[in-house]
Design goal:
The structure is a single chain. By secondary structure, the chain is of the alpha+beta class. The chain has two domains: about 5-20 and about 30-50 and about 175-355, Immunoglobulin-like, CATH 2.60.40; about 65-170, Helix Hairpins, CATH 1.10.287. It has six helices and 16 strands. It has helices spanning about 60, 65-70, 75-100, 115-130, 140-170, 290-295; strands spanning about 5, 110, 135, 180, 185-200, 205-220, 225-240, 250-255, 270-275, 295-305, 315-320, 325, 330, 335, 345, 355. The strands form five sheets. Strands 1, 4, 5, 6, 9 and 12 form a six-stranded mixed beta sheet that branches. It has a four-stranded antiparallel beta sheet with strand order 8-7-10-11. Helix 2 (about 65-70) packs across helix 5, helix 3 (about 75-100) packs across helix 4 (about 115-130) and helix 3 (about 75-100) runs antiparallel to helix 5. It is elongated and about 110 Å long. The two termini are about 30 Å apart. About 20% of the residues are buried. This is Inward rectifier potassium channel 2.
């Protein structure tokens, strides 16, 4: 069976490459139109602007729990306070109405409740169960007993809902992405692979093949691992219509990062390089530096896995636009053995460091 071994590029003096410019021309073309980004790098949120029909906004109400969890904290915290205050006000009005039902009679439902202020305080005492003092219910009023029991149940429901909401909000693994890093650029270069094959007489024969690859890096700064981490790579490419006229279509492709071979499943003990082989079946096949400069595309990386501490699934998004894809450069090593030889060292500062590919 043939085996493959990648050949390392020739060693050159390491330099940091920020961009690769096209060859100088006498009349350089105008700068291409700016490509809007689809994914925000800082938090992985989508930057797409949705035009939703007004009648479709009801869907957010029916899925209210998901909507409030996805809301920002400046919305959740006022909502938390509003739920309690609103319930106290509603039942305060109910206790006020009940108190006015027996203004001067011998029977009263709540002692020492004569106006809305005292009824509101009694509502808080009932729902928060801080104990009755100067104001207390009567055991001879059926309406008061019924209202007291109903408010107690409603208070428990509100506590359960808001407690579940805050727990789900706090335990979401969105903050886990803060310690997962991607290389600032992706690189495209020719990788030389040595194949050990057999001739007709069965003797080993070395063969060298060249293949085009797209590479980027992923690293995890935490010592606790992402369980069952796997990667997907999506390509969004806006192509102009063949007839012109300014129209076009945003096309989406799923780029193969080794699904069949298992290369999409990664272990982030050290920084990992993810490869997409640009074969004839790849949408990037035949893409040149000039084509990239005039194209409107974005590579979206999706990393999914289970957070070891909570057991919840985390998803991290990252993207590369055409300005963040570099040709004919390779990444510098980030892991090396210490001078004493007693430990391995991972230098995260070199995660995005490049050097030109040797000719």
């Amino acid at each position: 069976m043939a085996t493959t071994t990648p050949l390392l590029p020739d060693k050159t003096s390491p330099v940091h490459v920020r961009s690769v410019n096209s060859p100088e021309q006498e009349n350089p073309p105008l700068p291409p139109r700016k490509v809007p980004r689809m994914v925000k790098r800082s938090d992985g949120r989508s930057l797409l602007r949705y035009r939703i029909p007004p009648q479709s906004y009801l869907s957010y109400i029916w899925d209210f729990f998901t909507s409030i969890i996805n809301a920002q904290w400046y919305v959740v915290v006022p909502f938390f306070f509003a739920c309690y205050v609103l319930s106290w006000l509603v039942f305060g009005c109910a206790w006020t109405a009940l108190a006015y039902s027996y203004p001067d009679g011998n029977m009263t439902c709540v002692y020492n409740v004569r106006d809305f202020t005292s009824a509101f305080l009694f509502s808080i005492e009932t729902q928060v169960t801080i104990g009755y003092g100067f104001r207390y219910p009567s055991d001879s009023c059926a309406a008061g007993i019924t209202l007291l029991a109903f408010q107690s149940v409603v208070g428990l429901l509100i506590d359960s809902f808001l407690l579940g909401l805050m727990f789900a909000k706090l335990t979401r693994p969105r903050s886990r992405r803060k310690t997962i890093f991607f290389s600032n650029t992706a690189v495209i270069y020719d990788q030389f692979v040595r194949r050990v094959d057999r001739d007709e007489e069965g003797r080993p024969v070395d063969k060298t093949e060249r293949r085009r690859v797209l590479e980027f890096r992923i690293a995890d700064m935490r010592r606790s691992q992402i369980v069952e981490a796997h990667v997907r790579l999506q390509l969004y490419w806006y192509r102009e219509s063949a007839g012109g006229g300014g129209g076009g279509e945003l096309q989406q492709y799923d780029l193969d990062v080794g699904y069949d071979e298992g290369r999409d499943r990664i272990f982030l003990l050290t920084p990992v390089s993810v490869f997409h082989y640009i074969t004839e079946q790849s949408p990037l096949y035949g893409l040149t530096r000039e084509d990239l400069a005039s194209s409107r595309l974005e590579l979206v990386v999706v990393l999914e896995g289970i957070v070891e501490a909570t057991g919840l699934t985390a998803q991290v998004l990252w993207s590369y636009t055409r300005d963040e894809i570099v040709f004919d450069s390779v990444f510098q090593p980030v892991a090396y053995c210490s001078e004493s030889g007693g430990e391995w060292v991972v230098d995260f500062s070199k995660l995005s460091s490049l050097r030109p590919l040797a000719e």
